[in-house]
Design a protein that fits this description.
alpha+beta; Butyryl-CoA Dehydrogenase, subunit A, domain 3; 4 domains; seven-stranded mixed beta sheet; 18 helices; 11 strands; 11% strand; globular
């Protein structure tokens, strides 16, 4: 009997981070629901115990059912029957198990049947599910869409849709179109308001994850004569209307259990969410930030799966009279895999904590005025969340791909065969650095944290000043040296006052910042638990080398070198 929560000490470690007390205090509104709901916690310890028990159940289902079904789901995949999606047998079994355990709607308010969990344990659940089957998390994890309904829809819409999500109905976000991928301002799906005030949708959507979900959030053009983001609004489409047809399911490299659909809307009844014209400007931005956090959790879960498969194989496989884990070429690879896994996970939960606090304060502000101190706190954590989210999505997805690649390499020829799970894990990993905004787009978002000095400020004011055990000070000295080099590199690039030059070096600057941030986070983890000292040592050492290389490249290039790249053919 496998349990993907209890067999991973890192999850409980991050669940009990000191900042969780503040997060839960805010989330539970000083435990005001303890008399209204018998499952609402009455103090911090009770809340953590509730999170722990919920994650234990998720871990058991993932270990005993979801992971067991992963290979058959990958082979069978979903199908289109009569213009609608039929899941693979294993996918349906997974959903049934999680529904039966009441594990849908984890973050939704209790008044709708949810568990009111904070983003940290919800992301842990996504981490666990992704380790079991990266494709399945794209169905289960789209309950994120319900958060957008909870945040922006009117009360009648909340009452109609949110209890359904909590009971196990699935969601989708229908954004992308054949001619509107990353550039969502180009969306053309037409929303028409009828004389009675109701709306209908017409057009085509493409690459829609779980596109035939029960409840869909649809971005559509509601304003005649517009061609940019200001003409777009957000709508809810209910599959019960049966007015949207699945034209086909894409034949994908990986995450095959998750149906990626092309959809045809023909006079599909829909409900406006919030205000007109704010679909892209406000609602999609909130939706995408949550989705990018979700891909961060998915990336970490896939990294965990890749590392465990590689480690197990290296311990068993013998060559030249000994197990291959005894060879330096292999144990070095495994050690670096573990340090990158720990680094991406600590960045994930640091970002989740930032989002948790600012979003919860935002929800509180809808019911009462925030105190001046709370307003300051919300502004502080919102800025951190804005800068850390693209850093997390970009770095964790790239690490996910690297770990999957290395896992295959450790397996050798066997890893190339479908006899071992790493073949599927490798294919599943590839999408993480592409969807919900490619790594290149995450760099575009994260570079603001570089140019505004946001990363540097947080590093200097928070991470550098935290009290450490004496034996860890040498690692902080290295990180301080890396920070000084990073600051110099930023100045070198930004002083040129050339946007193309900044764009050219943006990824290097963002990765330099990421190496320092994750190095400090691992150092702080080691300060709490010596178990993380090894990963902190390894990651900071490799990060130092990487940053030196990137700084050297910046030193060695000039604007005239751009000509070498512009004409790549």
């Amino acid at each position: 009997m496998a349990n993907y929560y209890s067999d991973n000490r890192d999850l409980k470690f991050h669940l009990t981070h000191p900042l969780m007390k503040r997060i839960i205090e805010l989330r539970e509104n000083n435990y005001s629901e303890k008399d209204r709901f018998d499952y609402a916690p009455f103090n911090y310890e009770d809340a953590i115990d509730s999170y722990d028990k919920t994650l234990e159940v998720i871990g058991e289902i993932c270990g005993d059912i979801v992971a067991v079904n992963a290979e058959s789901v990958d082979a069978e995949g979903p199908q289109v029957v009569d213009n609608h999606v039929i899941y693979a047998r294993g996918t349906q079994e997974n959903l049934d198990a999680l529904r039966k355990a009441n594990l849908m709607g984890l973050t939704l308010p209790r008044r709708f049947g949810g568990l009111n969990m904070s983003i940290v344990p919800y992301s842990m659940a996504a981490d666990i599910v992704s380790r079991a089957d990266a494709g399945f998390v794209n169905i289960w994890g789209l309950q994120d869409c319900a958060e957008t309904i909870s945040e922006f829809a009117d009360e009648a819409q909340k009452q109609h849709y949110l209890p359904r999500v909590c009971k196990g109905e699935t969601c989708a976000m229908s954004l992308t179109e054949p001619d509107a991928g990353s550039d969502l301002q180009a969306v053309q799906l037409k929303a028409t308001q009828k004389p009675d005030g109701s709306w209908v949708l017409n057009g085509v959507k493409r690459f829609i994850t779980n596109g035939d979900g029960n409840i869909s959030l649809v971005l559509a053009r509601s304003e005649e004569g517009t061609s940019d983001g200001r003409g777009l609004s957000m709508f809810i489409y209910d599959r019960a209307h049966m007015a949207v047809k699945v034209r086909r399911i894409e034949h994908k490299m990986g995450i095959k259990g998750s149906p990626t659909c092309e959809l045809v809307f023909k006079d599909a009844p829909a409900e406006l969410v919030g205000s007109r014209r704010l679909g892209l400007i406000k609602y999609v931005m909130a939706l995408m930030n949550g989705a990018r956090l979700g891909i961060g959790a998915q990336s970490v879960g896939v990294s965990e799966a890749a590392y465990r498969e590689a480690l197990a194989y290296a311990k068993e496989r013998k060559q030249f009279g000994k197990t291959i884990i005894q060879f330096p070429a292999v144990y070095e690879m495994l050690a670096n895999m573990k340090s990158k896994l720990d680094a991406s996970r600590t960045l994930l939960y640091e970002t989740c904590r930032f989002v948790d606090i600012y979003k919860t304060l935002e929800h509180i502000s809808a019911d009462r005025a925030l105190t001046p101190e709370e307003k300051t706190e919300q502004k502080y954590y919102q800025k951190l969340a804005d800068f850390f989210t693209p850093l997390l999505k970009g770095m964790s997805s790239e690490y996910c791909n690297k770990l999957a690649y290395d896992a295959i390499q450790i397996h050798g020829g066997s890893g190339f065969m479908k006899d071992y799970p790493v073949e599927r894990i490798y294919r599943d990993a590839r999408i993480t650095s592409i969807y919900e905004g490619t790594t290149q787009l995450q760099v575009v978002a994260a570079i603001r944290g570089v140019t505004t000095g946001a990363y540097l400020k947080h590093i200097r004011e928070v991470y550098e000043t935290t009290e450490l055990k004496p034996e860890l000070e040498n690692l902080r000295t290295t990180l301080k040296e890396m920070t000084a080099e990073y600051e110099t590199a930023v100045t070198q690039v930004t002083d040129v006052k050339d946007n193309e030059w900044l764009d050219f070096h943006a990824r290097r600057l963002v990765e330099m910042a990421g190496n320092i941030v994750m190095g400090y986070l691992l150092l702080l983890d080691a300060n709490r638990d010596e178990h993380y000292t090894k990963s902190a040592n390894l990651f900071i050492t490799s990060g130092r080398s990487e940053n030196i290389g990137m700084k050297h490249y910046i030193d060695s290039t000039s604007q005239t070198d751009l000509l070498l790249f512009r004409n790549a053919e």
